[in-house]
Amino acid sequence: MIKKVALVLIIAFNYCNISAQSNKKLALTPPMGWNSWNMFEGDITEEIVKGIADAFVSSGLKNAGYEYILIDDVWQGGRDNQNRMIPDPKKFPSGIKALADYVHSKDLKFGIYSDAAHYTCGGYTASYGFEKEDAKTFAEWGVDYLKYDYCHAPKEKAEAIKRYSAMSKALKKSGRDIVFAICEWGQREPWTWASAAGGNLWRTTWDSRDVWETKIYNGGHAGIMNILDKQVDLEKYARPGSWNDPDMLMVGLYGKGKSSSHGGGNGCTDTEYKSHFSLWCMLAAPLIVNLDVRDINESTKNILLNKEMIAIDQDKLGKQASRIIDCDDINVFLKQLSNNEWAICFLNRSKKTKSIDFNWNTFELNGKKIKVESKLKINKTYNLRDIWKHKTIGNTETNLKAKIESHDVLVLRLIK
Ligand code: GLA
Predict the structure, then answer these.
(1) 203 three-state secondary structure
(2) What is the DSSP letter of 320?
(3) Do 270 and 337 sit in the same domain of this protein?
(4) 131 and 62 share a domain?
(5) CB of 73 closer than 6 A to ligand 1?
(6) Are 332 and 283 members of one domain?
(7) Containing structural domain, residue 222
(8) Average pLDDT, integer, range 227-236
């Protein structure tokens, strides 16, 4: 009898503990939205954020699945006399709660930024030592997503894990479901620990610049191709609720952004933006745009609103593509989709148009036998749906023959 009572008490105690925390699984598909940093840096205001939320609806981005409106660094105005974080009153005179309410009134979600040290990268008030207080404040404001940076924090991996776990625990106890985005730029192999530390996504690289490729890769210079190369072999870490984050989308910035234009980020062509978007979808990457959505042009809309491409990113299986071929400036990425379908992307990295002749059975490209790590098992015929032409262009019974322009992609969905 005594044993029975003890058991009931243990069960009741566990139940209380669990009910105080949210165990809901978040970010089951890669988050989609907008972030203020690359376009506006510290010039962000509540008027801009409201305008972006309105433009999400009028441009069709909301309908296409983009949902988070994220304020990055340089929103902070210090702490009040009870140590609660406050926003800069000039930029956000109505307060963050009112702004989050506005975003929510459009049926969108709201996110904010802090850092695991005393100061953020921009030198503003951050959350180290105030994790519980700040998580509570963010929850009271109606925050749905927190990007948590790592400037001014110690370099040791163990300390990073400790600091990220502390904020994740505080967020879980805040009573609100808040997606947790870890941002330590891939410096401590976060793919091996970030999910266990409570992260739903983790940056894998330095900040992307608005440029196709840079000669060197470091904190000041990282082109889209340089970042792409850093994703290879990380595919095994991506899954629903836990995503590699190769940084935000430069699509539509045309060299007009602030941070994204540092280090030679002078902009890309629409073809390059189309490839960048396609590759990020193949990688099951978060799709976070940076452009001023209030001023979006038709070419950018054609890229960002391609629902067939977005469906590949958002596929429920949550697989990140593998680079199966890297040969003569042609890269081939293969992504498994649900219902036994596949997506395949041919990327031409050279400065010239390239012809491809691809054998579906042997996976030979232009007659060359290629060592492929993972290979699609063709035990039946698939139809080939061209994701940018929106039509079927053949099937897997004959070789795929195509011309791909410089820096362009051919993306196919293999449909039964
Ligand atoms: C770091 C991050 C960027 C941005 C800035 C803000 O560089 O990697 O994405 O958040 O800080 O200061």
Answers:
(1) strand
(2) P
(3) no
(4) yes
(5) yes
(6) no
(7) 2-313
(8) 97
Q: Return phi, psi of residue 32, to 5°.
A: -125, 140
Q: Domain boundary at 313, 347, 372, which? A: 313
Please identify which of the residues 115, 149, 245, 315 carries the catalytic annotation: 149
Is residue 143 domain-shared with residue 20, that is, in the same domain? yes
Q: Among the three residues 313, 347, 380, which one is the final residue of a domain in this structure?
A: 313
The CA R_g of the chain, rounded to the nearest whole Å, is: 23
Q: What's the token pair of residue 171?
A: 């967020």
pLDDT score for 50: 98
CA of 122, closest atom in ligand 1 = 12
245 lines ligand 1 (CB under 6 A): no
Q: Does residue 354 share a domain with residue 230?
A: no
Token pair listed for 200 = 């739903």
Q: How far is it, in rounded angstroms, from Cα 323 to Cα 335?
A: 9
pLDDT value for 120:
98
Ligand 1 test: best mutation among 207, 208, 250, most atoms within 8 Å of CB?
207
How many residues can be counted in the chain?
A: 416
Task: Give the confidence band of 370 by pLDDT, cuts at 50, 70, 90.
Answer: confident
Q: At what angle do helices 157-172 and 131-141 cross, to 10 degrees?
A: 40
40 lines ligand 1 (CB under 6 A): no
Active site residue 207: yes
Q: Are 330 and 320 in contact (CB under 8 A)?
A: no
Do 272 and 404 lie in one domain? The reply is no
Ligand 1 centre to CA of 214 (Å) is 19
For Cα atoms 228, 229, 232, give the angle at the middle one, nearest 5 degrees. Answer: 100
Q: What is the mean pLDDT of residues 240-266?
A: 96
Q: Atom 1, ligand 1: which residue's CA is nearest? A: 121
- Provide the number of structural domains found in the chain: 2
* 187 and 307 housed in the same domain: yes
Same domain, 327 and 363: yes
- Closest atom of ligand 1 to 121 CA is 12
Tell me the pLDDT tens digit for each residue of 48-100: 999 999 999 999 999 999 999 999 999 999 999 999 999 999 999 999 999 99
Looking at the chain, the whole-number percentage of residues with pLDDT higher than 70 is 92
Annotation says 149 is catalytic:
yes
CATH number, domain with residue 56: 3.20.20.70
Atom number in ligand 1 closest to CA 74:
12
Does pTM surpass 0.85?
yes
Averaged pLDDT for residues 338-342:
93
Residue 29 DSSP code: S
